[in-house]
Amino acid sequence: MISKSLYFSAVMALTCSLGFSQDKKQQDIKSIKSMCGCYEVKFNFTETFKYPKDSLTYKSSPTKHESALEWVELLEDSPNKIVMQHLLIVSDDMIIKHWRQDWLYENTDLYSFDKGTSWKYKKLDKKVVKGQWTQKVYQVDDSPRYEGSSTWVHVDGQDYWSNVADAPLPRREQTIRNDYNVLKRRNIHEITASGWNHEQDNDKLVRDDSGKDVLLAQEKGLDVYTKVPDIKCLAAQKWWKENNALWKNVRDKWQTLFDRHQDLNLEAKVDRKALYSLLFDLKPTATKAETDAIINKFVK
Question: How many Å is the Cα radius of gyration of the chain?
Fold first, then answer.
């Protein structure tokens, strides 16, 4: 028989453990949600090391330094799921729907990029993802891009989440490169006193049909998000109010496809048009039947 003192100690230890877990989770949520708001962003990328078979003919990607004003809208805020939509502000009259990031707590369903326009479904072990957050990143048309599960770290004044995930070529590379087909992304999201940083150390890989990878080159990326008053992003907030119903229909359609828990294979183009082009052409009043029909054409 267990003594009262041992029983009391065990209960106290469990209670403290659960309390610590909840405190840690709330700290994670605070960090994730702090990425919302209005930001001046500086995008920086440069190719670092190169490993081509023919170094004489190999052409590196140009170093990139760009800046933009971006609004990050909080779409969903629940204890185990946080959804944020990025909107690029070109001008008051030109808003571009950018990438989206979903954060899921202790998520076990993952879509891992393979190559081309294919993603493999993976079921993760509950024990492995305990206390972790999955970041699911989506393209401008809300199709998948890359996903990974890791633990938020809050130590010694540092506040970050780090993960490695395979992804398609970024848009900045798609029009100038066809000599690699997978970008293995080492992503660090770090919360700072002035906003947050998205740091990357990426491998440019050539992946064959057997899944074998050959490293072609590496690159460094640093996107610096500096918080500015929300009033500077009023144009994006207004645009989203007018267009959010359309994009909710798009997200809902994709979710039904993800919920099948099957590998996902997409067409790159239909009738010589990309999915994002067809969706961007729609009016805000387009129906769910219209968006569903467009997306269905791209699902193999």
Answer: 21
* Two tokens, residue 278: 């067809």
- Do 142 and 126 form a contact (C-beta atoms < 8 A)? no
Q: What angle do CA 256, 259, 265 make, to 5 degrees?
A: 80
Chain segment 104-113, per-residue pLDDT in tens: 999 999 999 9
CA 300 to chain centre: 23
Q: Which helix (H) or strand (E) holds 5?
A: helix 4-33
Question: Can you tell me the distance from the alpha carbon of 27 to that of 154, in angstroms, rounded to the nearest whole number?
Answer: 8
Count of alpha carbons within 13 Å of 288, Cβ hemisphere only?
A: 8
Residue 247 DSSP SS3:
helix
Alpha carbon distance, N-terminus to C-terminus of the chain: 62
* Site of tokens 């050539």: 206
Specify the pTM.
0.92
**Which positions ≥6 away from 5 have C-beta within 8 Å?**
none
* Amino acid identity for residue 126 in this structure: K
How sure is the predictor about 21, in pLDDT bands with cuts at 50, 70 and 90? confident
Express each pLDDT in 174-230 by its tens digit: 999 999 999 999 999 999 999 999 999 999 999 999 999 999 999 999 999 999 999
Quote the tokens at residue 170: 């970024």
* Residue in the structure block whose two tokens are 């990050």: 72
Indicate the angle between helix axes 234-258 and 288-298, nearest 10 degrees.
Answer: 60
- Amino acid, res. 12: M
**CA dihedral for 66, 188, 200, 156, sign (positive or negative):** positive
Task: Of 234, 284, 283, 281, give the one whose Cα is nearest residue 91.
Answer: 234
